Amino acid sequence: MKVIVCKDKEQMSVEGAKQIQECMNNKPDCVLGLATGSTPLGMYENLCRMYKEGTLDFSKVKTFNLDEYCDLDVADKNSYHTFMFENLFSKINVSKENIHIPDGESKDANKECKDYEKAIVQAGGIDLQVLGIGRNGHIGFNEPDESLFVETHVTDLTQTTIDDNARFFEKKQDVPTKAITMGMGTIMNARKIIVLANGEGKKDAIRALLSGKVTTNVPVSLLQLHPNVVLICDEAAYPND
Ligand code: PGA
């Protein structure tokens, strides 16, 4: 695993954007796996700036997002659809038909999951997957458990994740408790993975990612089995001990 320790979140965001730029330069019609959350926000700002400056062209790029809440209106301010359009898609020249985000409102969620897997395969597989990490080591919404799902599936969110997400919702009871997420196999099938992390709160998860042991109790640790992972974190998240 390649590790890039940055002095702060700004530098982490620049490094992340550089990885995407490199992927797009090598393959203008590449397939990007994208993540939501506070971690990749700065990276998306950099990508929007690079597009504006004319150094990036998303016209042939396809995107697949990691996850989406179930039973939350796509137009809700907290849906991942809204997040992606507000922070990236509305500011770059990606074609609408090339954007894929799981439909958490689907009446047949299991079919939605199967169709999502098929769509990724039909697009040729993911060239570069962007990941943030939950404090508990989740990636996408693959939460710590005795066993983990391989493919895209519906999952219950853990209390830690529900608590972490509560800050975005007015009422506690509005916080979604289920989501559709790519599975560990979907993620591991990406040709390259970049993991972004900043802040002290991610230190334990990064420690597990660098531990030399894998455990489904810290899903991010499984990435050690992938041959092409780049960890980009700030000094606060990097365990020096
Ligand atoms: P965060 O979330 O970027 O808001 O810290 C990361 C995650 O839960 O995957």
Short overview:
This protein has seven helices and ten strands.
Walk me through this protein's architecture:
By secondary structure, the chain is of the alpha/beta class. Helices cover 29% and strands 17% of the residues. It is built from seven helices and ten strands. It has a seven-stranded parallel beta sheet with strand order 1-10-9-6-2-3-5, covered by helices on one side. Helix 1 packs across helix 2. The two termini are 19 Å apart. The mean pLDDT is 97. The structure holds 2-phosphoglycolic acid. Residues 37-39, 132-134 line the site of 2-phosphoglycolic acid. Residues 37-39, 132-134 line the site of 2-phosphoglycolic acid (PGA).
Radius of gyration, in Å, reads: 17 Å
Total helical elements: 7
Categorize the overall geometry: globular
What small molecules are bound in this structure? 2-phosphoglycolic acid
Low-confidence stretches: none
Which H/E pattern describes the elements?
Answer: EHEHEEHEHEEHEHEHE
- The tally of beta strands, per DSSP, is 10
Largest sheet: 7 strands, parallel
Mean pLDDT: 97
Tell me roughly what share of residues is in helical segments.
25-40%
How are the secondary structure elements laid out?
Blueprint: E1 2-6, H1 9-26, E2 31-34, H2 41-52, E3 62-65, E4 67-69, H3 80-87, E5 99-100, H4 109-122, E6 128-131, E7 153-156, H5 159-165, E8 178-181, H6 184-188, E9 192-197, H7 203-209, E10 229-234
Helix pairs in contact: 1-2
The structure holds 2-phosphoglycolic acid.
